[in-house]
Structures are given as structure tokens and as C-alpha cells.
Amino acid sequence: MRIPKIVILGAGYGGLITAVRLQKMVGVNEAEIVLVNKNDYHYETTWLHEASAGTLHHDRVRYDVDSVIDRHKIEFVQGTVVEVNKEEKKVILEQGEVTYDYLVIALGAEPETFGIKGLKEFAFGITNINSARQLREHIEYQFATYNFEEEKKDERLTIVVGGAGFTGIEFLGELSNRIPELCKEYDVDFNKVRVICVEAAPTVLPGFDPELVNYAVATLERRGVEFMIGTAIKECTPEGIIVAKGENELLEIKAGTVVWAAGVRGHSVIEKSGFEAMRGRVKVQPDLRVPGFNDIFIIGDCSLIINEEINRPYPPTAQIAMQQGEVAARNIVALVRGKEEMESFVPDIKGTVCSLGEDDAIGVVYGKKLTGGKASFMKKVIDNRALFMVGGAGLVLKKGKFNVL
Amino acid sequence: MRIPKIVILGAGYGGLITAVRLQKMVGVNEAEIVLVNKNDYHYETTWLHEASAGTLHHDRVRYDVDSVIDRHKIEFVQGTVVEVNKEEKKVILEQGEVTYDYLVIALGAEPETFGIKGLKEFAFGITNINSARQLREHIEYQFATYNFEEEKKDERLTIVVGGAGFTGIEFLGELSNRIPELCKEYDVDFNKVRVICVEAAPTVLPGFDPELVNYAVATLERRGVEFMIGTAIKECTPEGIIVAKGENELLEIKAGTVVWAAGVRGHSVIEKSGFEAMRGRVKVQPDLRVPGFNDIFIIGDCSLIINEEINRPYPPTAQIAMQQGEVAARNIVALVRGKEEMESFVPDIKGTVCSLGEDDAIGVVYGKKLTGGKASFMKKVIDNRALFMVGGAGLVLKKGKFNVL
């Protein structure tokens, strides 16, 4: 008798939680489980700003998928997903095909450049391990090159960060701590360095409490970060960016490094596979299945869930992806066991903390506003909690953050 | 009464030894001493291959000039020498002028590219602190970029080293130890990396004992280095190099990094100041003064001394520069004290050791051939001796190399 085959695409927060929950709940004779991921490691997307700035080594930000899955229960396929063929119930990989009875799409996000010219070609991203370490090395190379050249080019020491959202601000927090170290390493005058945050929206960290936003801006400005708020990037060039200043005026900012941290969208495989989506995100049913496809779950950054209170989508976060993974796993177990009733996903937002570097942060946790050391402590608790949920205390000990208060 | 003014140009091996010897021998009322150097630090030119490969941090390779000179006795001027005006007895700096009664020119070497097209523009050098850390970062950036790009460019992982002389081989020794670390750091397959040494001469390390040369080549080949001997680089391009293969055939080698380590010449200030010179090196008198100029000493890489035994110039080495500094200092003291008789410089070559990385080397010390750990030990003794001569035991403790055998 053939047992059903569960295929999980992606070993990010959502996919990995689904996998480790399923391996506990499903017997080997009950279902076959396949986990597909591009790399043989999982990385902490929410820690990438640290690896990108060079304040935390990228090996601290990733761990082998093998270290948290049970290979007797889960078959791991290292492969890149090209497309999902919903009709034939199979996944096309660059390296072959995988058929499924139940599918969990947890492929995560991609950068959204909103069609701004040159961003894809010339701006760096905080997207994955490869882009993080390349960005770290690019910045270091600019500093290393500065004194090497007889004719000094100060623009080498200018770093533009596009976006004052969560990723942008967390990256600025790390970067502004890293700059003095880089100045020392390469004998560069700190006053020659410029870090400019350009944000099209009228405020930093939209949606955050204004008092906390002011704290964040003041902290970063004290470390030398310049903010250009309400300023849209019109174009990115090999030399820097062009921004709109007022109605008609354009301004060029020369910069050796441009980082785009202003938006993500769902994975392009979503559209390529013919799912109805908004910027790569599919509005899923309360049970996390795709309307019309009872065998396909979409969770994490590729899913869209409406926050009924404000009638707007929840932002794509690790917190939600992991909670969805738990629900998806339980619903699949029910399906495998022939049950009809599905559990509905209800987000439980415990808090949001935005890091401002090693020992500073702002956030709201259980409805309480926090800044400074306390917020930074809570950030580390949250980071360690993600590890704990996937790999238990062992993974927290191996990869956790303990340099607190 | 005016006391004579001694000006030393350069705080390399020769200049710094001259300065520290003079500050011991000359009383403050006897002469004024001025030391001019481009940077406020001295760097160990003979250790730069380590900083360039990234196996030793560049701060281990330099120390503040201030830490070894007595500012009560020596005035330190941080400045870049443009020209020596021998007639008016003054030195033109980018930042002003300095007059002298006695001058010591110890400005060191510059890379010699023999007019090969593109080398100046596209090849990296192992020349000073700035170029060393830029080369280190450039190589690291190539590795960091490799996996970042969707379409892999294997040539990013090809490093061409032009020159199989002392610097080239020592750099290859460090680099071949560093490559496995870089592969691990950036998830790069070791087999994709190519390190190619291109040498126009018919042998590696010309002048060295053939048995030792064979040991060096075999060691480096075992670590993956490819040798192209008797092969001249015709051109360096942004994409790599073009070499002559046989009589008429040209071969392109694509490489993300080209390092030129095949020759040095004396400082260009020598020619600019109208001294009679061969590739920037002045054939000095036995007392180290310039023929026709009783007030100007030239020591180190800008001086040319003939080895009478083989009727060829001694190669420019730290060993000779330091020994010359001792003699120059004594001769200047004699001149200041109105004595006519000058000491002649006689090189005392104690040995030559060529490093092949952390714990391997080849060399001849006091006429004895050494390889492996023993040679490597002697290399560290030599490196520490240079520190001792300038700054005594204190400097050795601070900057010395102790990870021996």
C-alpha cells in the first residue's frame, strides 16, 4: 500500500518548523516526508543584517539542515525549485522532479525593487548568506582601497541604505557600530565616512510607536547616520543614487556602496506556478491552504494573512512563519489520518523588537514599550526562541546569543 | 652657534637603524636630527607577503615610529618627499621643505614593471601596508562574490602571481595556506581555485641552491600551485594576463587577481633629484656617500653595492639596509665631530631564508642548507632580529614571532 508523500519546499523558519513538527508527529509507515532546500543549511534571515555589516560571522547565522532533521524520517533533497505543477502534483527542480500528495510552499521572500532603475544591477541586498558576506566584503574592500589610491575618493566611504523599515534600521544599527572598527583597521578618518539612510515614506519605521522611532533615530544620528526621509530613490547607478528632492529637482549622491533594504515580496516561483498572488504572496484560507487546492499549503513570506483589526496584511515575519508551520504540520497530520476538520491559523503577536546594534534596541513586548538594554535583551530572547523552536536547547547552546546586558 | 642638521629620509630598515643609532651616539648639543617619513609608522617590508595573503594582520607588521625614537633627540616630520635639491641642500616635501647639512636617503624601493602593458593599472603589488591590505581584501572579495553570482565565474578564483623570486615564492607560501581557509569561509570548492605562478626566467628562485629550489617547488605544487616557468607576461588586462607561449603563440589566462611580485627598483625621487642611477639605485662609495656629494649618504634599496666575488650587485635586502644604517650613522657622527676618516661598508651576509608559509621554509644560514621546520625557525629568528636591532627586546616582545616549531 502506498503511503502519502508530503513535500516541503524551503528550509526557512516556516518550512523547517513544519518539517521538525511532522517528524515528531508522523510515523514512518504513515507518510513519506521530503524536504527540499537550495542549500544544505538553514540561515536566520532575521540575523542577516549582522552578517552583512560584519558584526556577526555568517557561520553563526546558519546551521546544517541535517543537524535538526531526522534522516530516518525525512528525505532531504538539495535543489532549487523552478515551478510547481499543481495539475500533475509535482515540483520541478533545476535538478529533477519531485511528486507530492501534500505540498507545503515555504520558499520565503525575494527583494522587491519596485522597478527602480539600476537597483537590481548595482545595489547590494541583505537577502541570504551569499549576499550578506558579499556586502560585508564589499564595504571592507572600499575601505581597504581608500588609502591605496593616490587620489583619495571620499565617495568610497559613503554608504547609502535605501529603506528605513525594519531591515534598514537594524542594518544601520550594526553598520554604525562597525564603521569605527573599519576606520581603525584601514587608517581612515571617521569624519570622511558618510552613512545615509534614504526613505521614501514620511517616517522611519512606519507603524512603530513614535516615541520609539525618535529614540532609534536619535541613537543612529548620534553615531553619525544621516536620514533623508520622504525622499525617493529614482535610480541606482554604478556611482551611487539619484534621488528626487522636492517636486522637480534631482540630486545625485555618490556612494561606493548602495544597499537596498526597502522591501520584500513573495518568491517568484509563486507567480511562475500560476498561483493568484499579490507581489508573490497568496491570500491563503484560514487553514493555510490555497483556495481551490486542498493539497497545497502556503506559509511564511509567500502567504498573505489579513489582520482583521486594521484590515491590512500582517507583515511577513519569522514569528508568523513559525506559527504557521506549527498549524500546517497539524493540519497535514489530520489529512494523512483521513480527518476533515482543519485548524485555523490565528497569529499570536507576542512583540516586535528592532535591534540598534549589539546592546541597544527598541520594541514592544507584550504591549510594553522597551528601549536600550532591556529591549536588546528581549531581542536576544526572541532570537534564541527561534532556535529553540526548531532544534531545542541543544541548538540554542550551539548557535544562541548570550552576550546579554 | 649653529649645530649641524642631519636629515634622514625614510623610516624603513635602513633609515630607522640610522636614526636609532644616531640618537644614542649624538648629544643634543652636537647635532639636530630630523627623520622624515610618509607614514607615522614603520612597516616590515619583508613581512608584507603575509599581510597580503591575509595570514598575518597588517597591524602585526607595523609599529609607530614614535615607539622607537626619542622625540627629545629626533624631530619627526610626517611628509612625502618630492625631490632633493642637492645644490641648495634642502629636501622638497609635498608639505614643505627641510634643509640639511647631512642627508641620509633611505627611501626604499618601488615596483619595477619593466614597461609591461597594463601591470601598473590592473596588477596588485606587495609594496606597503596600503597595498597589502587591499590585495588581501581583493582576494577575499573575489571569493565572497563567487557564490553570490547566479552564473559562476571560475576565473574569479584564479590568482596569477607574476614572479618566482623571493617575494613571489614567499607570497605563494602564505597564499597556498590561506586558500583552504577562504574555501571554507565562502563555501567554495577547493578544486575550482587556481594559483598560477608565471616566471620569465628559466628557474624558480634564481641564485638559490637547486636542491632547495626543488624542495620549494614540490612543496608549493603539493598545495596546488601551478608553475609556468620560462614564460613572460606580455600584458595585464582587467580580465587577466596574456603570456608568450613559445616563440609566436600568445595565451590568455583569465584571472580575478593578478599580483606583480617580479621586481623592484630604487625610489623615483632618486632620478627626479638628478642622481646618476641604474633603475633608481645609486652606486655609492664604500663609505656609502654619493660620489661628488660628501654630505649625502644613500643606503638600502636606493643604493647599489657590487659583490666583488661575482662582480654583480648585491640584491636589495633588509639585512644589507640595516648594516648600512649602522655604518652611515657612525660615519655621520665622525663628520659631525670633524673627523675625516670614513668607515667602509662591508656586507656580512649571515644567511638567506625564504619562507614557504607558517611552518615551512628553505634557506642557507652560515653556509648550511636548511629546509622545513628548522628553516622556518631560522626565518623567525631573522624576523625577530630585525625588531631587536631597531627597538631592543621590548619591540621583539611586542611584535615578534614566537609560534615556532
Q: What's this entry about, in short?
A:
Two copies of one chain form a homodimer. The first copy, chain A, has 405 residues and is of the alpha/beta class.
Provide the helix percentage of chain A: 25-40%
The first-level CATH class of the largest domain in chain A is given as: Alpha Beta
CATH third-tier fold name of the largest domain in chain A: FAD/NAD(P)-binding domain
Number of domains of chain A: 2
Characterize the overall form of chain A: globular
Mean residue pLDDT of chain A? 95
The largest interface is: A-B, 17 and 17 residues
CA distance, first residue to last residue of chain A: 57 Å
Radius of gyration of chain A: 22 Å
Please, what is the oligomeric state?
Answer: homodimer
**Can you count the helices of chain A?**
9
DSSP summary, beta strand count of chain A: 28
Alpha-beta classification of chain A:
alpha/beta
Major β-sheet annotation of chain A? 6 strands, mixed
